């Protein structure tokens, strides 16, 4: 028998922990030129921190889903769009979201709104091995964890367990998703919130976790490769 309340409660705890870690990271990465940093953060240290913290939180969520017997279908696994169809849909959605994000950021910049890219620049590797770790480990962990939390758990499980409208949950989870990216500045929060809602809509329509994980990964990977790897700026 599924213990919905236990799973939703643990999901809430993980969400609060993630937002607290995001706020702490935002303060630690304060780029105020007047401030003297307490520690010098390397890209390798930051990558390890991200992979470890989000990997641990993902492990908690997966263990909670198993322990409480949440149906895989409620989490978008083995239901809805699957296989090559899900991969194709995720690829199209991811490329579209990447282009929309870039155009939105460029438009905001032209209008005088700041879009803080400091965190991405700090995470950018300076070696081939670092790029392999980023693209092959860190970004997949981030994409799977954030989609499992903000889409599968906060939308799929809550809708299945309590009959709440998935579209209402899509709005609420997207707001939390945006708040969790506060290090990107106010404009970044707005753009991320819109991106999060499109991902949420993709999850609701396709009922597939794989679709949104692929899309999320492509958005992040393309941003790193295009900006930090190739040095291309849309502005």
From TrEMBL:
Domain of life: Archaea
Listed GO biological process terms: CAAX-box protein maturation
GO molecular function: endopeptidase activity
Top-level enzyme category: hydrolase
Chain segments annotated as transmembrane: 48-67, 74-99, 128-145, 152-177, 189-219
EC number: 3.4.-.-
Keyword set, alphabetical order: Hydrolase, Membrane, Transmembrane, Transmembrane helix
Domain CAAX prenyl protease 2/Lysostaphin resistance protein A-like span(s) in chain numbering: 131-222
Protein known as: CPBP family intramembrane glutamic endopeptidase
Native organism: Halalkalicoccus tibetensis
